[in-house]
Amino acid sequence: MRFRTVVSNSNLFLRVVQSIDKLSKSAILKLTEDKLHIVVITDVDSGLQLWTDVLNNALFAEYRIDSVHNNEIYLEFSIDNLQRALKSAQGALHITLKLTKKQQLPVLSLIIKNQSSTGRELTLTQDVPVRVLTPLQMENIREPMVPDGHVHIMMPPMNSIRSVADRMKTMGDRVAVGANNCGEMRIRVANDLVDITTYFKGLENLNDDPTQSEALSGRRPNDLRPDTKRFFTAVVDMKNFIRFLQSYHVAPKNVICCIIENHALVFYVYIGSTGFGAGSGMINDNCGSLTYFIPIRQV
Amino acid sequence: MTSLTSRVATAANINEDDGPPALFKAKLNNVRPLVNMLRAVGFRTRVLCTISNTGLVFTVDEAQAMVAQSFFRSSLFSSFFFDASAAATDDDHPEYASEEGDGDDGVATQITLPLDKLIECLTLFYGPGSGGNSGSAHGISTSTLLGPVNDLRGATTAELEYKGPGNDFELMLEENGIISACRLATFEPEPALDLEFSRHPVVQQLIMRSDWLRDAFNELDPTSDAVSISISATEPYFRIATIGDNGSTEMTYARDERIVDAYFCNEEMENRYKLSLVLRCRSALAMSDKSKVRVNQRGFLCLQFMIPTDTDVSFVNYIFAPLVSADDEPA
């Protein structure tokens, strides 16, 4: 197998990796001909999962990949290592990323070229050890299948939610997140001593599954959306909800929340070519997405 | 302008006319002064809340040797309603400082609330990590207080409501269009510890600027078990000292006009108090401009802190029982 590319947008690459930094120690990188995928699974049964994909041409140039399995390569890596390597590549003149072997062990090598003040070229190489996964191992890592969501709604500004969630996290180990088709969302936590429900209004509902393209153009006729004021709620582990909220360094403008009652909470963050959060309502102009799956609490 | 309660009721699909009418209902344009007054006694998990026409009094005690009370007057609310006729008459009032005075018929209703949770709710919109209960049992430093006491930035408005025994204490908070409805469990009020400070003549009193007292407390050796406080008619007029494993510290101050506003001493006395309990008052001290130090004939110490609130002043009282050593004569 062979993989070699020029990194043309190291800043975007870094920010994607920074977003997943707090979730787990390691992650899986799936390199394909057209996209880069990152998968973080905190706990197969009850934990948060994050599935990220970014179009190669938003990050790379002169991209070359070659493997016996559909030209796909699967690598497990330490998030912290890759993050640090990318940090040191910021502002460089030229960056190459390739899969190679150092001392018999596979590494992703980041070759960073800079120019010193005297004009001489400086080359720095950062090696990120990786574990190559077999296609069979990768087969077992699948995006969770979820039924269609009951409601899709734009999240309120992340700063407000974070503040409220920060207080609520000490009040219970589960949180109920609900929304309706009238732009309202409510978050509730309760224990023996205190019960708090926070209401957000004036949010934008999306009528269709955002993973389908041209999502905004379709409007479901009213008879398929009875009782728009009815709240759909998913009860999830507080820990997972907080993990999701803490996982951005850059506050994206647009996060979509999808509630599948009795099943899961799914959050979609769109990555625009210049950063996170495409312009308001426009999710067509994006080069990638972060999809967070939070299963409901089992008991 | 619809009330917060009716908007929440609409949001939550409740008919707010159900149930008994409120025994107590009040509104605040900004929760910050209330948060500060609660943090001033915020080192315990439970607080006794006394509601009367005068306002709210929050009382905590510790080790049967210290009582702290924070007074939040009804005039500090933008609206205040208390149904005295519906309230159970209660003869056991906690002790009020004479400056407060009741001015009413003494009718009050008492409940015990989870103090840390109450503060967490009120600071819901303060921002991650910067709010919560800064008056933890492990001690507080001035730096954890959020800016000047009268800072009204980013105001959270609140409506408080209590329907009477058997009901939760309800709090409706709003900031920037986001509404939070909180319900706090209420408990049977535990009888307040009464250290009977006012029942004995005050023999020593001085009023000083709080920054002086803050400096003095910062100098004290925290490993010492006791702190001694003496006021005298001759020099040194006021002395605070500790003796601990790390040696002894002593602060003495002259009757300097710049520091001591009012002073009298009818009887010279030196009394010792448990240092860890005395240090509980640092949060209140940090917020106050002036402190009044009084000692009564039995050697009980009362520290009263005057905290600027809105355009006025609010009070927090701390009363400490003296440490009695084995070879003291009984009083």
Automatic annotation (TrEMBL), chain A:
It is found in: Nucleus. Its main location: nucleus. Keywords: Nucleus. Belongs to the HUS1 family. It comes from Coemansia erecta. One of its GO terms (biological process) is nucleotide-excision repair. GO terms for cellular component: checkpoint clamp complex; nucleolus; site of double-strand break. This is Checkpoint protein.
From TrEMBL, chain B:
The keyword DNA repair applies. It is found in: Nucleus. GO terms for biological process: DNA damage checkpoint signaling; DNA repair. Its EC number is 3.1.11.2. InterPro entries: DNA_clamp_sf (IPR046938), Rad1_Rec1_Rad17 (IPR003021). Gene3D superfamilies: 3.70.10.10. GO terms for cellular component: checkpoint clamp complex. Keywords: DNA damage, DNA repair, Hydrolase, Nucleus. GO terms for molecular function: double-stranded DNA 3'-5' DNA exonuclease activity. It is an enzyme of class 3 (hydrolase). PANTHER family: CELL CYCLE CHECKPOINT PROTEIN RAD1 (PTHR10870). Belongs to the rad1 family. This is Checkpoint clamp complex protein Rad1. It comes from Coemansia erecta.
